[in-house]
């Protein structure tokens, strides 16, 4: 991670003369984009949440992974809200209100998604029913075999 | 398994085809996913909601800053999220000028921008903005569910977001946005 940072810093330094050509801002990152919260417990909460929030610029990355400046601003937003004592799930909901479910990697139980959560139970029940039938039939067949023996 | 003399040989019937049908359905889903055109736009789900409270300092020397209170009262306005470092933002500037000429009032939010860069950008591309707020932390952008630059929002006279245009405004989008502004008057 550190090494990767160093390399990206080095490439950045190389690219700096080209900066006006690139579609990227040149402002320093937001205060809490790359700085952890002083309280380790709060930082752990923020980190756990950030890993499950989608970066809207690089859409397969989480905001914890992405170096896009918007992801940095979103990390700043998350960390300042956590530092202010806000609940991580409330922050997730705040973002879902703005960007829809797509912004969260953690699926939420909703009228549309509850079958996802119910399906394993349904499948297990179905398997149990099937197995019960099999065992019963097997037992009956065994009993029949025993009866057939002279 | 062969020890089932009691039960008569059952016909497999429809159950035999079920896996194939399921597989076919799965295949159709995959093909649909492959054929469907790629769309990476994330639409705001904040349409129909009042603009969140904010107050941004001015981003340019000759335009005032921007606050959420300024959207209440008066007439519907356009809120343009842009930046001098964003290429498509320069592409849409003739269309913004056209909208301003047609009577649209446009407020700008400059995302993570430097004052001198912005001044250069406005000098080169024109300045259709009534006010420009400086948003160094993308606060307003995140607050209204915008996921990139440029994006343009129609905000009605009650401060409620009514429409979002993602990406640069092209000439064919101008009448659409004017119609949305008109619609927001009601």
What would you say this structure looks like, in words?
The complex is a heterodimer of chains A (150) and B (186). Chain A is mostly helical. Chain A folds into two domains: 31-107, Cytochrome C biogenesis protein (Helicase, Ruva Protein, domain 3, Orthogonal Bundle); 109-150. Chain A has helices at residues 2-15, 40-50, 69-83, 88-99, 114-148. The longest helix of chain A has 35 residues, at 114-148. With 186 residues, chain B is α/β, with parallel strands linked by helices. Chain B has a domain at 55-183: Glutaredoxin, CATH 3.40.30. In chain B, 31% of the residues lie in helices and 18% in strands. Chain B contains six helices and seven strands. Chain B has a five-stranded mixed beta sheet with strand order 5-4-3-6-7. The radius of gyration of chain B is 26 Å and the shape is elongated. The relative contact order of chain B is 0.19. Residues 1-6 of chain B have low confidence and may be disordered. At the A-B interface, helix 3, helix 4 and helix 5 of A face helix 5 of B.
For this entry, give a set of tags.
heterodimer, A: about 150 residues, mainly alpha, Helicase, Ruva Protein, domain 3, 2 domains, rod-shaped, B: about 190 residues, alpha/beta, Glutaredoxin, 5-stranded mixed β-sheet, two-stranded antiparallel sheet, 6 helices, 7 strands, about 30% helix
